[in-house]
Specification:
- It contains two helices and nine strands.
- It is of the alpha+beta class.
- Strands 1, 2, 7, 8 and 9 form a five-stranded antiparallel β-sheet that branches. Strands 3, 4, 5 and 6 form a four-stranded antiparallel β-sheet that branches.
- The longest helix is centred in the middle third of the chain and has 19 residues.
- The N and C termini lie far apart (48 Å).
Length: 144
């Protein structure tokens, strides 16, 4: 028997939330690795980044931070630098965190064809990672 996926509601791992001056995303993940991946995906979608033609290149990223929130911000800042300064977006990533303070990732980067929303910075404004039975959730505010 075939399943009818049209009747199944699946929540996005991120959604844009109202914010007075900037733009914000509420992000969910089953664990910290998943939360970081979904936050990056949300930021790229928020920026309207579109990969252009050309080969992808792997890039290794190693980060250390004092806590999970700082690690999240450092991760997003690293990807924002690639978008805004290097003209690269990412099409795939493998992330591994350790003790909420270390991140190792391999990001497949592609040339950026277009960016519709410039993001100036990732902020710490009201940043708090909350735990629940479903996993983790946070809100990330971007200065646009």
């Amino acid at each position: 028997m075939a399943l009818d996926y049209t009747s199944v509601m699946v929540a996005e791992p991120f959604e844009e939330t109202d914010h007075t001056a900037d733009r914000a995303l509420t992000v969910r993940g089953k664990d910290l690795d998943d939360l970081l991946r979904n936050a990056a995906l949300g930021m790229v979608r928020l920026s309207g980044a579109v990969a252009g033609p050309g080969p992808t290149q792997p890039r290794e990223i190693h980060l250390r931070a004092v806590d999970e929130g700082s690690l999240l911000i450092s991760w997003l800042e690293e990807l924002l630098y690639s978008l805004e300064i290097l003209g690269l977006t990412w099409v795939d990533t493998a992330i591994h965190t350790h003790d909420g303070q270390e991140l190792q990732a391999v990001v497949q980067q592609a040339p950026l064809a277009r960016l519709t929303q410039s993001i100036k910075a990732v902020t710490y404004h009201a940043l708090r990672i909350q735990r629940s039975d479903e996993g983790l959730e946070t809100t990330v505010v971007f200065d646009v």
